[in-house]
Design brief:
2 copies of one chain form a homodimer. The first copy, chain A, is built from 12 helices and 15 strands. By secondary structure, chain A is an alpha/beta fold. In chain A, helix 3 links the parallel strand 3 and strand 4. The interface between A and B is large, with 60 and 60 residues.
Chain lengths: 410, 410
């Protein structure tokens, strides 16, 4: 049924290496925070490669940049892409692989001379990381219309610089209206940023969807007491209650199963003195599941347990919802195409759920969308030690090219 | 056998109120940090009361001030006292009761005309709280010779001011050699600073000793991981391990019993982000028991459990001993005299162990020593809400006067 698409592995890997030089950190890793001179440098490089590949380059008013099949700008595109911005101390592939691999797939398809009914395009979205400007995935949110452009442009960074000025400062305040590129389907190739593929020794993650996320901040209040003079049974120890919540969160994940994640990584103690029973602890529960029903069940169990803990230890609890993001299911037809391409190419693979956020989950709200993962060594990402083997970078790009061909051929 | 001693309750309560005006905080409470102008003001007031009572005032080179039966300075004294310094936001009775109550007991005994074989004295020790200068109980440590005077004088406060200069600045760099007052026995009247007497509705704590203290800092190290992408069974979550240690500490106290205290009040998480599995947690265990054998048993159980937790969750642990203070047993004969006085006066009482540190525990290393506790409302101390009922202030002082008479009469 499918036929495979040749890509230029050497060009792919060389470009990834060249791009990693833009914002390279002295000891390794990459720092290309959004709309900084380093980001401009990466964007400029990408723009030249788009032009080398014969693509038409367009930039919209949110700074999203597109390399499009020339002369067919008004037709629905099979679009692929990701982002070029990184966290402060990032690696060479988070985002970059989706852009450079996307271009490689599109360029190879063009060079193959195959006649594809739909035009192709590569997207570079602005501020995916959300480190300099909030929210993350800002560019794709504006592209889909989920975030108004005027609101996006007045987002401020920590120095009070609005996004609009930062765009103008690097010359990426484009003239196109965000969302101007018609999209038939969207694909994103990305590193897993988790340890599963690496641990299992597999090349391709067939991404079925993105976990829903529920963050709640709980403040547990008891009483400060002297650690020496206060009998154990006369204490209202907020840290004891918080500790029981942390232990429960782990048990909860096991009980719910089905990929449920439950993390308490933020926990602050007051007054935090060795000889004073803690009066107040603020912690944040981070619950994730691709099944929103199970996620709600986990949330309810956590709330009930914290209420029970507080009752047991004479504590008061204040809960505040911080984040609730719905799970995303990718287009089942596209998920099937990714699986099929991996199989046709003889690549080892598994279906999986994304635990991190991506531009694709925003695009999925409007367009048929899919994602392809390749392994992250030891699951490390947002870190200068981020690494993916060259073979896997190539494998993911080959799968992407095949899926794009399939989508554009229909 | 015993006869009771009348004290002047009105004078006692008025003096406590007057003294609380020295360093009074606008909204209530007292701030009389050691060797500040407020401390000088309190000391000056006390000196005038010593003189009014006909006592000879002497100050030693560590700033410890004594009011002594005149003309008998070279004989072994029955000494009582405490400290006048407070924490930054303290109450009117922590330390002050032992000094003002001590003077009231001594003055009443002198006014009673009873002929006592031993001279009496009231001590004001420097820097008991240890808030401005380290260590706490500095004055009594120098008095007993456990801390060399020259070392004490070069202790620096947070502004780099040495204790010696701070003493000179307020005119309390006395000429006497620390330890110059011969001591036959030492008694300290103090508020409990814990909730036991108040909760039980009792007036007098017959203090048998002071808990030993063992502080250990543990640093648990795992791995930072993404809360969304990292499966639960591939985590090395330092906060989960720390939480299990907190839960265990409470269980440990119950298992050891016998007044065992086990507190983790200081716990710091890194990186402390809601969507990142904690890499490192530093916590301090505060274990206390009056029985050093049980305290050692508790310490060993805690160490073993933390080792087991780390093994279970793939963590590494680094332990650092911070403090190990031996328990103190007060003189059994004096403990018996306190109990007897409470009984003779018809005051409700119970034997107890001090959970906090006091000058008396330092004095106990060299001299026959005892302590008397009176209730702290809700166990609150080191706080502007610190309160003890007038009846209890009077009751404790009456017990003290009786015990001093007994000790001086032998």
């Amino acid at each position: 049924m499918s036929h495979t698409t040749q890509i230029n592995a050497k060009r792919l890997l060389e470009r990834l290496e060249t791009l990693a030089g833009r914002g390279a950190l002295p000891g390794g890793g990459v720092s290309r925070m959004t709309l900084t001179p380093e980001d401009k440098s990466g964007r400029d490089l990408m723009r030249t490669w788009f032009e080398e590949a014969g693509l038409t380059v367009q930039v919209d008013a949110a700074g999203n940049m597109f390399g499009l099949t020339p002369g067919r700008e008004s037709e629905p595109h099979v679009l692929t892409g990701s982002h070029l911005d990184t966290v402060a101390t990032g690696g060479p592939y988070d985002g970059a692989l989706g852009v450079v691999g996307g271009l490689e797939a599109v360029q190879s398809l063009r060079e193959s001379g195959r006649d594809l009914p739909s035009p192709l395009g590569v997207a570079v979205f602005t501020n995916e990381e959300g480190v300099r400007f909030f929210p993350d995935m800002l560019g794709s949110l504006v592209f889909t219309g989920d975030l108004a452009l005027d609101k996006a442009l007045i987002c401020l960074d920590a120095d009070g610089i609005p996004l609009g000025r930062a765009l103008a400062d690097i010359g990426y305040d484009g003239s196109h209206t965000p969302g101007h590129v018609p999209v038939k389907a969207f694909m994103e190739l990305h590193i897993e940023q988790g340890p599963i593929l690496d641990a299992k020794g597999l090349s391709i993650g067939v991404v079925k969807g993105v976990q829903g996320i529920h963050w709640t901040e709980y403040t547990l209040s008891g009483a400060t007491n002297h650690a020496g003079t206060t009998p154990m049974d006369m204490r209202r120890d907020a840290l004891l209650g918080a500790a029981e919540a942390v232990v429960f969160a782990r048990r909860l994940a096991g009980e719910i199963g089905n990929g449920q994640r439950a993390t308490i990584g933020s926990l602050k103690v007051a007054p935090c003195l060795s000889n004073v029973v803690a009066e107040k602890v603020t912690l944040i529960t981070d619950l994730r599941n691709a099944d929103m029903g199970l996620l709600q069940q986990a949330q309810t169990m956590m709330e009930d347990e914290i209420a029970a803990i507080c009752k047991r230890h004479g504590l008061e609890s204040l809960a505040k919802e911080l984040v609730l993001v719905d799970a995303v299911d990718f287009d089942p037809r596209i998920v099937g195409m990714v699986q099929e391409q991996a199989d046709v190419l003889g690549l080892s693979s598994m279906p999986m759920i994304s635990g991190a956020g991506h531009d694709a989950q925003i695009m999925a709200g409007k367009f048929p969308t899919g994602m392809i993962f390749v392994p992250s060594k030891d699951g490390v990402s947002h870190n200068v030690r981020e690494h993916t083997e060259p073979d896997d970078l190539v494998a993911g790009t080959r799968v992407l090219a095949g899926v794009l061909a399939g989508l554009a051929g229909q």
